[in-house]
Write a structure and sequence with these properties.
The complex is a heterodimer of chains A (about 400) and B (about 375). With about 400 residues, chain A is of the alpha+beta class. Chain A is about 40% helix and about 15% strand. Chain B has three domains: about 110 residues, Acyl-CoA dehydrogenase/oxidase, N-terminal domain (Butyryl-Coa Dehydrogenase, subunit A, domain 1, Orthogonal Bundle), CATH 1.10.540; about 100 residues, Butyryl-CoA Dehydrogenase, subunit A, domain 2; about 140 residues, Butyryl-CoA Dehydrogenase, subunit A, domain 3, CATH 1.20.140.10. The longest helix of chain B is centred in the middle third of the chain and has 37 residues. Classes of the chains: A alpha+beta (about 400), B alpha+beta (about 375).
């Protein structure tokens, strides 16, 4: 067993190469507001520039095939890139790109060769940013109930409907979305996915006023939106996986959304919190010396370590094509619930300073305040905590002999 | 990065699993639990004969010279039973203490014998006050003629009834240092008594003015004995955690099977989300234990500093085994509490192993220290 990718000399040399390149190419002007709603256009463009540069080197989607614009690299290379980019407080890609990640993976499995050649290179090279649009007012946990309609008309489909809790701030180039392609057909046999250029006429984006935009794992989204589709005409070429075949495509998309794929990242919040408790005093001694504070910090640390290990395991399983069953939703469920438990422990330790980003009185430069909001919101995006458990049960085969299979991944 | 086992480790896992299924089926485990006999008759002798129990002992001393992960694979399979016996206590913990603190002559005298199961050396560490701290060792050793005389009581000693010898922490009356002394169980003044109740292989050991040779003092000196023991405990904990992972896995499998076969209200009970929740909580504990354990074993194998990981793995693992059994009982209801079903073997073991080599609270405090909080 080997938990560490930098075992060989070759991999160490690669890490040095990545480290030096990042030093040259990550703008010192990139800042990290605790709440991603505060990422400006300028900050977003700095991240996009970095993404394009990473894409040119094949490092943005390191393990994706070279023929589609990826790096064609091995898992260990991808891990090195993720770790080194993470040391700058950034993700790979360094901008919200849920549609790129999930849509790209879905197209890899279900797209035609021509579709792969058309849609994947711009994603993998960092030339476009893509939103995923799944949820509707009547279709949240019950995604199969999606009602946004796509009606065939010649060479096009005409799309009408509404998606909510989707996207990010600062726009998109493409939208990866699920529609109902046949109102008469039975459930699960009436869906179709489209990769839609975001500048088509008829698309209206309206930011929602939420407690916080909430984490799908990865780069913060800033805001979530309602998106209206009013007779939007999309080329039939952009339908991926076949008309009415959308449920099988959804199994791939959802597999990755529900935690399969994992992550490599430090838990910066835990680091910030530990630093804060070492540096701040109560009753004449550092907070870390208070036995109750110490106990809660260890609670937080233990749960964060388990989350890290689940994500690392999932990252390895995905890239080594190991037989995945319940591990994706297990990691999601753990992340959501431990995050919520952590937020109470933090409130216990820090008191009301956890609730404000006031420059004078707020704890840890506002990072803690944003987490207090995101911990409660994070229960639902990317599949609710209960949905994760439901899927775990099917994959384990609790109360059933036939175990549901994981969605197909390339 | 590669989180899979090597082909050799997979082979070992398969071989041990097959052996346990053959030699330690549930009926045998229930018999052993009921009789409270020394675990040195068959099938223990057959287990010893495989040579696997020498896994933590270097080849130059007659062992298998396996890695920490190899030992983890073996003990994970043993934990599935849970297979009782002085495998961990003698072949890993005591053997490690000898490796860390003994003279070369003592190593050559003891390690091959432990690897071959010819002698069983069981650590007797805790006392009535129940502590893992050096200052709480009260059993005293005084120079007496050309040898040592030990006096005091050890409590909560695992596997004592299976021992040929005991490895006792004792405080020198002369120097006040705590060292390690080997005591044959046949020595005059040694009395071993089983602790009745909800216990698993736990004993009281009275040492009433027990005389031993000077050569019984590990390392020929009291100084350094405690440190050697601490190093041995650090090496043993991840292997013990692997045992608990296997145990949790077994408890999980029992629960999933039961969820499929127990019919109530016209359907398998696992169709009810309340029952699903118990098993999901169980598997989360199991996997938390599994991956904290595996990472620790890997760190030790790759020569890395692992103090924080050792404390993390033990804090998580002992709590996980305890909780896993609770969740399993929630799934099983009545049948789970029937001795013949076999779940209670695990439940009982989980409670006794909770404190062994440090309970979750103890390791959480040590983890805080290791993180320099």
């Amino acid at each position: 067993m080997d938990f560490e990718p930098t075992y060989t000399l070759e991999q160490e040399e690669f890490r040095q190469e990545v480290r030096e390149w990042l030093k040259e190419n990550v703008s010192p002007d990139i800042s990290h507001p605790p709440d991603s709603i505060n990422i400006t256009e300028e900050q977003y463009q700095l991240r996009r520039t970095l993404g394009r540069k990473l894409g040119e080197k094949g490092w943005l989607w390191a393990t994706a095939p070279e023929e589609y614009g990826g790096g064609g690299l091995a898992l260990d290379h991808a891990v090195v890139i993720e770790e080194e980019v993470d040391s700058y407080g950034l993700t790979v890609p360094p901008y919200y790109d849920s549609g790129g990640r999930l849509g790209g993976a879905s197209i890899m499995v279900w797209g035609t060769e021509e579709q792969k050649q058309t849609f994947l290179p711009p994603i993998f090279r960092g030339e476009v940013r893509t939103w995923q649009l799944l949820t509707e007012p009547e279709a949240g946990s019950d995604l199969a109930n999606a009602k946004m309609s796509a009606e065939r008309d010649g060479d096009e489909y005409v799309i009408n409907g509404q998606k909510i809790y989707v996207g990010s701030s600062l726009g998109a180039d493409y939208m990866w979305t699920i529609t109902c392609t046949d109102n008469e057909a039975p459930r699960h046999q009436n869906l179709g996915w489209f990769m839609i250029p975001a500048d088509l006429p008829g698309i209206t984006i309206q930011p929602m006023d939420l407690l916080i935009s909430g984490g799908e794992a990865g780069a913060g989204s800033g805001v979530k939106n309602t998106v209206f589709f009013d007779n939007v005409r999309v080329p039939a070429f952009n339908l991926i996986g076949g008309e009415n075949e959308g449920w099988k495509v959804a199994t791939t998309h959802l597999e990755l959304e529900h935690g399969t794929g994992g992550r490599i990242a430090r838990n910066w919040l835990v680091d910030h919190l530990f630093e804060y408790c070492r540096e701040n005093k109560r009753n004449g001694q550092p907070l870390t010396k208070d036995p109750e504070v110490r106990d809660k910090l260890i609670d937080i640390y233990v749960e964060a370590e388990i989350a890290r290990l689940f994500n690392l395991r999932n990252y390895w399983m995905r890239h080594s094509k190991a037989d995945i069953t319940y591990e994706g939703p297990q990691a999601s469920y753990w992340r959501k619930m431990s995050g919520l438990r952590m937020s109470q422990s933090i409130l216990d330790i820090l008191g009301p300073s956890a609730l404000t980003y006031d420059p004078q009185w707020g704890a840890a430069d506002g990072h803690v305040e944003a987490h207090q909001r995101s911990a409660i919101v994070a229960i639902h995006p990317g599949g609710t905590a209960d949905i994760q458990k439901l899927i775990m049960a099917r994959r384990i085969g609790i109360g059933r002999e036939v175990r549901e299979k994981a969605g197909a991944l390339a | 990065m590669d989180l899979s086992l090597t082909p050799e480790q997979e082979m070992l896992k398969t071989a041990v699993r097959g052996f346990i299924q053959q030699e330690y089926p549930k009926e045998t485990l229930l018999e052993i639990a009921a009789e409270e006999q020394p675990v040195t008759a068959e099938p223990w002798q057959r287990l010893v004969a495989t040579g696997w129990l020498g896994i933590a002992i270097p080849q130059e001393y007659g062992g298998e010279g396996g890695s920490f992960t190899d030992a983890g694979v073996l003990f994970e399979e043993l934990g599935r039973g849970p297979v009782p016996g002085p495998h961990l206590s003698s072949c890993v913990l005591a053997a490690s203490a000898i490796l860390e603190g003994a003279t070369e002559e003592q190593k050559r005298q003891w390690l091959p014998a432990l690897a071959r199961g010819e002698r069983t050396l069981v650590p007797a560490l805790n006392e009535g006050s129940y502590s893992w701290a050096e200052e709480d060792v009260q059993v005293v050793a005084r120079q007496d003629g050309g040898g040592l005389r030990l006096d005091g009581t050890k409590v909560y000693v695992f596997d004592a009834v299976s021992a040929t010898h005991l490895l006792c922490t004792a405080r020198s009356e002369e120097s006040n240092e705590v060292g390690l002394v080997i005591v044959p169980v046949t020595a005059k003044g040694v009395a071993i008594r089983s602790l009745p109740g909800f216990t698993w292989n736990m004993y009281e050991v009275k040492l009433d003015e027990v005389s031993v040779d000077q050569s019984s003092l590990i390392g020929s000196s009291f100084a350094g004995g405690w440190d050697a023991l601490q190093k041995a405990i650090a090496r043993t904990i991840p292997v013990m955690c692997a045992y608990q992972v296997g145990a949790c896995q077994s408890v999980y499998e029992l629960s999933v099977d039961y969820s499929r076969t127990r019919i109530q209200f016209g359907r398998p009970i696992g169709r009810f989300q309340r029952v699903e929740d118990h098993i999901i909580n169980l598997v989360n504990q199991l996997d938390a234990a599994r991956w904290t354990t595996y990472e620790t074993l890997w760190k030790l194998d790759s020569g890395q500093e692992a103090t924080d990981s050792i404390h993390l793995a033990k804090a998580v693992g002992s709590a996980a085994y305890y909780q896993a059994c609770n969740f399993a009982h929630e799934v099983h209801a009545g049948v789970g509490s029937m001795t013949e079903y076999g779940l209670t073997l695990h439940t009982t073991a989980s409670r006794s192993l909770y404190h062994y080599l440090g309970d979750p609270q103890f390791h959480r405090r040590r983890l805080a220290d290791a993180l320099s909080l």
